[in-house]
Amino acid sequence: MIDHIPLWWHFDLYRWQDGFEILLISGLFYYLSVWLSQDKQKPLLLTFYGYCSGLLIADYASLTTISTLLLLFLPIACTVFLIIHQNTLQKNFITLHALTPSQKPSVDWIELVIRAGLTAASDNKSLTCIIEKKQALETIISSQQCISAPLSLDILRLITTSNLYNPHQMLWIDSHARVHAFNALWQKNSMTEWLSQEVQEQEPWLRDALFFTTKTDALFIKLIPETRTFTLIAHGKIIQKALAQHAFSTIRTYLGYTPHSLQGDWYVPFNKNTLSEQSRS
Where residue 223 sits, what CATH number does that domain have? Predict the structure, then answer.
């Protein structure tokens, strides 16, 4: 009669190094899956799982040639994933950290921004604003007029009526209803090298906004004083000639105050693709 083998004896087949390697590989696999799942436009996660499944099936079925080819092409496949997923990579490099507020501020502050824009239009001034959503912008925006104060109508009026105020530069606000600075500028460096010729021919403010909103989740807002309408840009897509009420509802939806989707509202300003598809890697 065979003696009963204790359960702990089976673990003697493995060393602690084996357990560490399993945990490490499992963790890398998990975080790679999470990273690929962030791209909602391309089925990268499903493709990655399909490639791994094909590799396992080929090895299990002793398909030596196919298994060898899949292993040889693995570095190429990883490079292709990096190229396709480059926008998410650029966001991770550009933004230092994600912003997580303890509680969402009242939606009233969005109405104050709209009112401040219309008041500026009455004085024949434009209002250009960048709203920081979840990704910090301090690495790509600079300003010598820093405030860091809670947003209020008095603050907005003080800024737009100041002699220092430049309507062609940006008012920097975050989604926590806090004013960071005014007269803010993009830190562009050699940005034009990334753009197609068609995009480079656009107005500078439009070209810059289209480029940087593809690299972050920020929302760009510009009031056109002649028509008293708003131009909204996010993710490299644009809404033009939006009236105040439409702009208000679109902003609050984009920032997450309402659950409705904006996919039907945004359109591409060019006949080809979005700027993110036109920019050269």
Answer: 3.40.1700.10
Q: Residue 145 — very low, low, confident or very high, per pLDDT cuts 50/70/90?
A: confident
Query: Quick check: is 102 in a domain?
Result: no
Element (H, E) at 56: helix 44-60
pLDDT-derived band at 280, boundaries 50, 70, 90: very low
* Same domain flag for 156 and 191: yes
Question: Which tokens in the block code for residue 197?
Answer: 């010729």
The interaxial angle of helices 244-254 and 108-122, nearest 10 deg, is: 140
Residue 194 is part of which domain span? 108-278
Tell me what pLDDT residue 85 has.
58
Asked if residue 127 and residue 61 are part of one domain, the reply reads no
How many CB atoms neighbour CB 240 within 10 A?
15
209, amino acid identity:
A
Contact 99, 134 (CB under 8 A): yes
Question: Number of helices (H) and strands (E), helices first, in the chain?
Answer: 12, 8
Q: How many separate domains does the chain show?
A: 2
The structure's pTM equals 0.59
Can you state the angle between helices 44-60 and 16-37, rounded to 10 degrees? 140
